[in-house]
User: What shape does this take?
Amino acid sequence: MIRYPSPLNRGARIAVTAPSAGVSVSCHPRLDLVLAHLRERGFDVLEGACLREDYKHVSAPARLRAAELNALLLDESVAAIFPPWGGELAIELLSRLDCAALGEAGLPWLIGYSDTSTLLMALTLRLRIATAHGPCLMDLAPGQDDPLTSALFDHLATPAGQCFVQHSSTHWQSDWGVFSHEPARTFSPTIPTRLAHLDVDPRRPVRFSGRLIGGCLDTIRHLAGSPFGDVPRFVRDAGDAGVILYLENCNLRPTEFLCAIQGLKLAGWFDKLSGVLVGRSSAGDVRTAEWLNQREALISALGDLACPVIIGCDIGHMPPQWLMINGALAEVRYAEGEAVIEQRLI
Assistant: This one.
């Protein structure tokens, strides 16, 4: 059902392109730092043309970004593609992807989160190729030593048929700082991580499994109803293996979040799921009791699902985060505010 790219090992070629937001001059020192760090780790780094500019929210016009992404996806010498970060306009590339050629090729890993997840979900749902939702390139500075981020390359080296295991973090952080002022900054998680089960008894341990699919709700919600967002078909194809949908909210206000989830329910995204994982929200919250807050919106949107829903997960814009392989068969074990996720590349 799922095709997996080859393991990403030392000596492999990593291409860097920005299919959505590019890197402005003020952040070039950070970009140079992380590119040099990849080379120090033993990777051959190929820098794309659509990267070192950011104008009108993008690195280049859509036709150029799409042409470069298509070329890199079809380049047999490329083992992985690392966008610097997300953005907002990756959806412009979907109609320009050469799906006929990509469907026949052995594709590289495409890695990232935020708006990059628009491309990740689209490729997995349309072509049944595994993609990697996790830390982006600009997170990978020298000295980045939190256990989840530092294990990224070990997990991406997992051969097809094998598995890797991740535990929930002990602490997380609410921002990255400003890379233009602190280009060498690494994560400094200080807020204790506490997951929760959206259940009458939130302490009740649960265990569920299924093929992973998901991403940033702000952007992937626009895929519903298109061939690039056919989650119901993915669920049908998974059969008895089941499907786990994971989501995170970057900027949606509580009412926007609630409406987005309800819209996806109408599109069938939540039908017959094995479970749902929700990341920490980086969206701002309301300050008065009369207004709907983020947690209330989450409970209202997802509290009626028949499957387990685990919230506060290491997914998205509040680092650190898990590496989630779209298409992989995962087992989630939750108890007492902590979770373990095992992903098998089968």
